[in-house]
Amino acid sequence: MTPRQTFSFSQSVNHMVARAFKVLDMDPGIAQSIQSCKAILQVKFPVNIRGKIEVFTGWRAVHSTHRLPAKGGIRYAPIVNQDEVEALAALMTYKCAIVDVPFGGSKGGLMIDPAKYDRDEMQLITRRFARELVRKGFLSPAANVPAPDMGTGEREMAWIADTYQQLHPEDINYAACVTGKPVHHGGIRGRTEATGRGVVYAMREFFRHQDDIKATGLKGSLGGKRIVIQGLGNVGYHAARLLDEEDDTKIIALIERDGALINEDGLPIEEIRQYLNKHKTIKGFPGANFTADGHTALELECDILIPAALESQITSDNAERIKTRLIIEAANGPITFEADEILRKRGITILPDAFVNAGGVTVSYFEWIRNLAHIRFGRMEKRYDELRGEHILSAIKTMTGKDTPEWIHKELARGANELDLVRSGLDDTMRLAYQELRSTLQDNDKIDDYRTAAYVIAVSKIARSYYDIGVY
Ligand code: GLU
């Protein structure tokens, strides 16, 4: 069933941001300037597929350029449209500001069903799309840097980087023209899992604050919480896997395209993912009840609901029936403006997308820096740190005459590798952003939800750059 929606996706985002403008009593001109999408490119290009010419339509929206490059993923889906791409580009602007990643916001989309084409055809189409973007000034390390999104991954990013390099062989920084590349092709370790891991780091930080937990009506720690999650794609899978394996939570329902799996005792995420990869469906997975009407599983009674799939999943149609205390928006725009109003009135706490799923672009930022620096993180200091660790251990032994326990020895005498550093940077980013969010919420009595707090933080930072530089 198509959800009833009065506002388009981009209008929905704008209405939510307008609440922050009101709180800040923002100059209407600056507000309008912040909200408007600065440039939008639509391309139509022909590709010869199996002897027949097919014309593809794609977009790249640049929502903001107060920081450069503008950053954001490229989505491949059969139903992409300009409004959606503009809304997602706007979310990128706010997301980057919230987590202090110095980028503007952008997003791209290609109307395509990737399942209909083989690898070689996808390569042809992607390279052709990339060429269009480069030629029109919508793809370069300095101005506009894409990344994976729904329907795209490392493979597409490698083709894009290579296409850019062929067109600009003189650009020594070519690898920084796109993030989310394979590691052997200039990518960074930990990028693929980054958005999902960031979601979990955000949740862990939330559960470090007893007052915040209490305000939702929940008690205790993250461990043991009953969770419903929608989506086992790149974001949902990594978030669910960590929650299942490291945080001792119970994932009682998992919603996918073709239905939902339900088990009150908890679902084994890794096994389900393997089943899904093999059978292309979750239907028939043993040890759980299956319902073909997956959407209704969003309404199951649970402690935490994590929509990690598409936009507009919770609308005015089902918002009254949502039975959870806490919603973690791992997807972009899963709750419409109207639904957000209903849920807020019902006292359901929402951690908003622009904060929760910012882990992806955070690690993209690390990758971009790594590409410009032309060196892997940790390469210079790893062995030095290990040596220092050894010295500290031998100093302790000389003073006490005792050996340190095996596990401490191992930890101290190990220098951080790139993955350790990426995870540490991501964790720190999510923690600091949450702390800023909660203090903004606590310190301002005109704000009573995390989304408005997030947008107040974002638009204040963006407005500051407008005031500092001026508008010309
Ligand atoms: N597509 C991801 C997002 O929506 C990542 C963007 C990026 O890394 O630039 O946040």
Polypeptide structure, described:
This protein has 472 residues and is of the alpha/beta class. The chain has a domain at 9-185: Leucine Dehydrogenase, chain A, domain 1 (Rossmann fold), CATH 3.40.50.10860. Helices cover 46% and strands 14% of the residues. It has 16 helices and 13 strands. The protein has helices at 9-24, 28-35, 82-98, 119-135, 154-167, 194-206, 210-216, 234-245, 269-279, 337-345, 353-356, 359-373, 382-400, 406-412, 418-443, 450-469; strands spanning 39-49, 52-62, 70-71, 74-77, 104-111, 144-145, 226-230, 250-256, 259-262, 289-291, 304-307, 326-328, 349-351. The strands form 2 sheets. Strands 10-9-8-7-11-12-13 form a 7-stranded mixed β-sheet. Strands 1, 2, 3, 4, 5 and 6 form a 6-stranded mixed β-sheet that branches. Helix 1 (9-24) runs parallel beside helix 3, helix 3 crosses helix 16 and helix 6 packs across helix 15. The mean pLDDT is 96. The structure holds glutamic acid.
Shape: globular
Structural class estimated from helices and strands? alpha/beta
Name given to the CATH architecture of the domain at 9-185: 3-Layer(aba) Sandwich
What helical percentage do the residues reach?
40-55%
How would you summarize what this structure contains?
The protein has 16 helices and 13 strands. The protein is α/β, with parallel strands linked by helices and 472 residues long. The mean pLDDT is 96.
Write the layout of secondary structure elements.
Blueprint: H1 9-24, H2 28-35, E1 39-49, E2 52-62, E3 70-71, E4 74-77, H3 82-98, E5 104-111, H4 119-135, E6 144-145, H5 154-167, H6 194-206, H7 210-216, E7 226-230, H8 234-245, E8 250-256, E9 259-262, H9 269-279, E10 289-291, E11 304-307, E12 326-328, H10 337-345, E13 349-351, H11 353-356, H12 359-373, H13 382-400, H14 406-412, H15 418-443, H16 450-469
Parallel strand pairs: 3-5, 3-6, 4-5, 7-8, 7-11, 11-12, 12-13
Antiparallel strand pairs: 1-2, 2-5, 8-9, 9-10
Helix pairs in contact: 1-3, 1-16, 3-16, 4-5, 6-8, 6-12, 6-15, 12-15, 15-16
